Amino acid sequence: MKLVYLIILSLSIMLFSCDKHSCFELYGKWRIIEYKCIATSCPIGLSQVADGGDYSLEFGNQGIITCNTGCNLGSSRYTVNGSKLTFSETTFTEKACEDILMEESVKHILPVIKAFEIKNDSVLFLKDADSHILMKLTK
Fold this sequence. Notes:
The chain is α+β, with helices and mostly antiparallel strands. It has helices at 2-17, 23-26, 100-109, and strands at 28-35, 47-48, 55-59, 64-69, 73-81, 84-92, 115-119, 123-127, 133-138.
């Protein structure tokens, strides 16, 4: 009987902690297709992810994301409030990688993200406090 109450309580917390157009839409694996490069030598705007790159963010329902940058893995806690999104306690492995610029860009982007927008249920834009797009992802 206690187990039933715990399950109901857990589901209630999950349901009421997510509002319309928030965390339920984020759940799952998103493939990074463009990102804001941190180097001054990068072109203006977003940089394309290299062809064949398996770079992704996976939003779990416990408030934790996992990040795959093709070489290193990362994780972070995330919080959603409406269209606001913040990351904290971000950590990454530190293997030497071929595409270190992309790796470093993602590490610097995550703490700066403050909002998100989803279009057509399949394109995710991660934005800074001034609504500049820092990363574009697809389902």
